[in-house]
Amino acid sequence: MKVVHLNTYDGNGGAGRACLRLSDALKASGIDSKVLVYYKFGQNPKIDTFSKSPFQKARAIYNILSERYFAKWLSKSVKTPFSLQWFGRSVINHPEVKNADIIHLHWVNHGFLNPKFLAQLDELEKPIVWTFHDSNAFTGGCHVRYGCENFHQQCGNCPILKISGKNDISHKTWVRKQKAYTELNFHIVAPSKWMAASVKFSSLLGTRKATVIPNTIETKIFKPYVKSEAKKILKINPDKFVLMSGFMPSKNDKHKGTPYLIEALEILSRRAGIQKENIELVIFGNKENAEMPEFPFKTIFLGTINKDDHLAKCYSAADVFITPSLEDNLPNTVMESLSCATPVVAFTTGGIPDMVKHMQNGYLAEYQNAEDLANGIEWLYHRPNKEEIQKAARLSILTDFSEEVIAAEHIHLYETLIDLQPK
Predict the structure, then answer these.
(1) H or E element at residue 52
(2) How far apart are CA 286 and CA 306, in angstroms?
(3) Which of 102, 284, 398, 406 is the most exposed place for a label (fewest CB within 10 A)?
(4) Is 362 within 8 Å of 393 (Cβ atoms)?
(5) Are 164 and 174 in contact (CB under 8 A)?
């Protein structure tokens, strides 16, 4: 069986990483699996690209930048990603795509596969699987919906666009997608139950079949290290209680929920029984230290970590990983932390409850409730059986998200779809 995975970028962002991890898991299970991306930044020999020649690279850059520039120009100043999908390119004549038994789509925005070129895939008469890493496939342009329910109808009156109305750009994009989806038969993979439920509510794809199959993770790389030793690597006193959180571009960032984290830590620092001098906060993935807010605990900024084995040691050094995200499909950071036996405190939102089991391998706080987020951190801080929770975190990943488990679920889906093809 030959499977080709299509993604815009090579490992940039959660979708790119999830795509590559799945391909590697499939190869480990004996499947001929390849990843093809629209634009390749890195040098990973396992990833091929549609944009090899200087002309193809230049065209890809033009499409990507044009898509992003026009979307930014037409949108309000909000931290909600929006795609116009005006730009794109055809892929049906590429030999790897033509020779594949299964075409597996992932994140295909930023000038790659717009509705016109998606519909064109139907000409190949092959089973097509599409993993929804965010909500864009079934909205009129946004990738993160928050409380907007316009996608239940036909979009329009978009709260993100500067010029909004019944027949605005979001509605016109919805119409283009509807036409494309009418021509193209594909099977949806939702990495979380929340994403599958969201698809069912959508006017574009509510009648389509969707299978819930989570993303996977390299459990032999993201593994537990001895906490005291991992803390020493980060030059942290082994006796300190270490909080960890991920990339936060600014205090006002809406999607990542940074203000809730700041408020939760302020609340925690004022509580009786909390020794501020015994707690340290570690932040990784930030762009500029100058953009970071003030925290009530001693804070270490690690910057961007490019080596996964070192990232695993950072997770292992933490006693709790905190993610205040307000909407997330199946965030890699949560899975990585649990795989390293570090419990997670998060809001009850998106696909996070698929991974975090309340008061078993972490704590699920009430949505947008900073005080309850603080409760979760305090619960772990005072917990006498921390080792049991850490073991439960690791076991939950091995049981439900390991490479073997997720590869087997995808292979079963692929075989089912191939069997359904006209002979």
Answers:
(1) none
(2) 13
(3) 398
(4) yes
(5) no
> Looking at the DSSP assignment, which residues form a beta bridge with residue 190?
212
Tokens, residue 322: 């905190």
The amino acid at residue 10 is D
Q: Is 127 helix (H, G, I), strand (E, B) or coil?
A: coil
Tell me, what DSSP letter sits at residue 421?
S
CA distances from 43 to 49, 242, 337, 391, 422 (A): 11, 34, 26, 36, 39
Determine which helix (DSSP H) or strand (DSSP E) holds 8, and give its type and residue range: strand 2-9
Provide CB contacts within 8 A for 307, sequence distance 6+: none
Per DSSP, which regions of 252-297 are E strands?
Answer: 279-284
Write down the pLDDT at residue 321: 98
Q: Per the structure block, which two tokens stand in for 234?
A: 């980060």
Give residue for tokens 């933490």: 318
Query: What phi and psi, each to the nearest 5 degrees, are found at residue 41?
Result: -90, -40
Neighbour count for residue 126 (Cβ, 10 Å) = 18
Q: Domains along the chain?
A: 2-216+403-420 (3.40.50), 227-400 (3.40.50.2000)
> What was the pLDDT predicted at 164?
94
For each successive 10 residues of the chain (423 residues), what is the average pLDDT?
96 86 97 97 92 95 95 87 94 97 97 97 97 96 89 95 95 97 96 95 94 96 96 94 80 68 95 94 73 83 89 97 91 95 96 96 97 97 94 97 97 95 78
Take residue 227 and report the two structure tokens written for it. Answer: 């906490």
What is residue 292's predicted lDDT score, i.e. its pLDDT? 65
Q: How many CA atoms lie within 13 A of 240 on its CB side?
A: 23
**Backbone Cα Rg of the chain:** 22
| pLDDT score for 248 | 62
Handedness of CA 31, 37, 42, 43 (dihedral sign): positive
Q: What is the pLDDT of residue 236?
A: 94
The DSSP line for 136-197 is GGGSSSBS--TT--GGGTT--S-SSBSS-STTSHHHHHHHHHHHHHHH---EEEESSHHHHH
Say how far apart CA 205 and CA 199 lie, in whole Å: 6
- Cβ-contact 118, 180 below 8 angstroms: yes
Task: Give pTM, 2 decimals.
Answer: 0.91
Sign for the pseudo-dihedral over CA of 413, 419, 422, 423: positive
